[in-house]
Structure to design on (253 residues):
């Protein structure tokens, strides 16, 4: 039976010979005598203790805030679908002319259309920060307007056409 | 910053205006004047200044990063609108 098999429960046993390996040159000069990993362990324990307060914040959330969160998540999923729709649209569209500047701007426009839902979603959230008056209504209206403006018509028309 | 975005929005306004001026004549020359897609053509011209004005107002007195984000979202919506109207036109 090796010495480690008889360690006391709870992992309290620490081989003193490890201490040497866990020291860095200059630790003593900076007043950091203890092995670093033990310090790190203590630091992470204290860091873990703080997030325990988060569930309490969840409990304190009002029904209106929960509805706003649910609405935002639902719109987030819709906006993800819109983005996919525009990526698909960009595959379907071809620049109808030959000039270079026009083609560069056309491709820039396709790129903008693809990232548009993400930009609109981020803008809607940024413009309705916590504490804004009628925050929920404004955010939902903003996200609804964006969803209507950003409908990926090229892909939608293609899919509708291919179904008939 | 607003001027740089004005240029970019302006490009989409320029192309939409070109279409509004040139396409009806083209349709008429082919004898299809009654099929001119007036609604997409006019919407294409109206959308860029409308979205720019909305971004200008909503960005308002906010910090620079927020204003850039709002202008960029408006520009992306302008681009998406122009591509959508292209397939209707």
């Amino acid at each position: 039976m090796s010495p480690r098999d008889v360690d006391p429960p709870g992992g309290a046993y620490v081989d003193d010979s490890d201490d040497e390996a866990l020291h860095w040159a200059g630790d003593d000069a900076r007043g950091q005598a203890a092995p670093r990993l033990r310090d790190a362990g203590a630091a992470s324990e204290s860091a873990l203790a703080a997030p325990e307060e988060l569930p309490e914040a969840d409990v304190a959330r009002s029904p209106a805030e929960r509805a706003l969160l649910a609405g935002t998540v639902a719109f987030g999923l819709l906006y993800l679908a819109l983005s996919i729709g525009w990526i698909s649209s960009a595959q379907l569209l071809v620049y109808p002319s030959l000039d270079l500047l026009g083609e560069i701007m056309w491709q820039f426009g396709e790129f903008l259309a693809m990232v548009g839902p993400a930009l609109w979603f981020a803008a809607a959230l940024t413009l309705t920060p916590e504490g804004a008056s009628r925050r929920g209504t404004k955010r939902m209206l903003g996200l609804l307007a964006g969803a209507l403006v950003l409908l990926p018509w090229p892909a939608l028309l293609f899919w509708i056409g291919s179904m008939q | 910053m607003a001027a740089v975005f004005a240029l970019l929005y302006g490009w989409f306004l320029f192309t939409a205006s070109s279409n509004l001026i040139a396409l009806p004549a083209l349709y008429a020359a082919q004898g299809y004047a009654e099929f001119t897609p007036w609604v997409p053509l006019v919407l294409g011209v109206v959308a860029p200044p409308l979205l720019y004005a909305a971004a200008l107002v909503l960005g308002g007195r906010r910090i620079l990063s927020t204003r850039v984000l709002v202008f960029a979202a408006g520009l992306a919506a302008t681009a998406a609108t122009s591509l959508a109207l292209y397939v209707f036109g």
The interface with chain B takes residues 86, 89, 93, 96, 102, 105, 108-110, 112-113, 115-116, 119-120, 122-123, 126-127, 146, 149-154, 157 of chain A (CB under 8 Å).
